[in-house]
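Researcher: Batch entry, complex prediction.
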Amino acid sequence: MKFSVRTSMFIFALFILFFSMHTAVFAQCKTVIKTGIKKLAPYTHNGQINNVNIKNGKVAEIHLSFYKGLYYKLQISSEKSVGKISFRVLDENNVEVYNSMAKDDNAEFWNFYSNSAQDLIIELKPENNTDSEGCVAVLVGMQIPKSNNPIRNL
Amino acid sequence: MLKAFSIIVAIVFFTSCGDSGKESNEMPVDSIKSSTVSDADLGSKLYNIPSPIETFTILKMSGAKFDKSLLNAANNIGKYVSIYSKSINLGVYSADLSFCLLYKENQDVNFYLKNVNELTTSLGIDGDFAQLVSQRLKANANNSDSILQIVSDASVDAYVYLKENQRNSTSVLITAGGWLEAMHFIIKMAETTQNKDIISLVASQKNVIKNLVIMLSKFESDAEIASLLTEIKDISAIYETLKESKDKSAVASIDKKIVSIGNNKSYEISKEELSAIREKIELLRNKLTI
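Model: Structure tokens for the complex:
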């Protein structure tokens, strides 16, 4: 199959456009992640990078394991194009332990103390079910108890 | 100590990159694929495990001391030839680097930083990554905050680079290598010291290994990953036998503003189970690192 010069140029231009858009998407995501890491302060980033591409108002789930005995901060960071993100945290029995919409505070983060080694599911959802698409990251900060005996027996 | 944590965690991205399992085939190192499938298309379920720095933080809190004999010898790097081997051992060396940084063993930090840079370059993770980090680190050698910023930025760049090039299986292998090395440290220390907190840390990997199995399963069409997965599943099978118990020394957050999450559960692990897991971990680590 032969292409005319004009067709070939058109295909080449399309490829360049697609590649540029693709690169731009990841560049945006990089900014989203770095912004989220900065917002973890005074908690220390635990080294995890968790990001998903949310599209068409669909819910995304991030499954993470946490250790017993640390304070944690979950920070949500997202591209403007995807709009405001609400998030829920579910425990191993699928019981909701946090909902960013519950107190109408539109929180972008949540702090908690983990009293067990456990898995938690972070459910992310765009507040407006539009056809928007974009990168959403969940960054985890950790903090060790400040004193030698920071915890009390139950 | 917190400053040391800060530096390490940025580096250790290598050993803890989330996996959404959206890739079917590993790309050649220097190729660029210009299409991608969005996470949302595949249900957007992402799994991740604690990074070695998170594990070592708990380890240090329990009173564990630095033990150089646990590190993978820096001069083993010449043995790692395939992409698979390099990826796994980038995770291993990143975990070693974390451990040295956490305990401020600066001489060893230099050896392991060099190895991490070398493997990163060798795997083609963004051509300028290692060189750029190295140059900027030299220029800011005495400023911890600058080092943190440099490494943190570089880590995110490298992670996004892997994802951009659809090399998620490389990310997962790096994560698996980091987990294996962290397991090697904690299980050896658990047996040596019989420290209850460290034994509990080993037992708590029951949750972690489940996620690791899911992460690796996404790439089991790759023969090498399938083989690794089989061995990880063997270890996971021992973990499945651990029984759950209510932690008698259950604790809650002393900070009333912060909610305490969890049901104070822990896992019981016998000496025999600990020993069986240790044997499998050591066999696998020796196979992959020596």
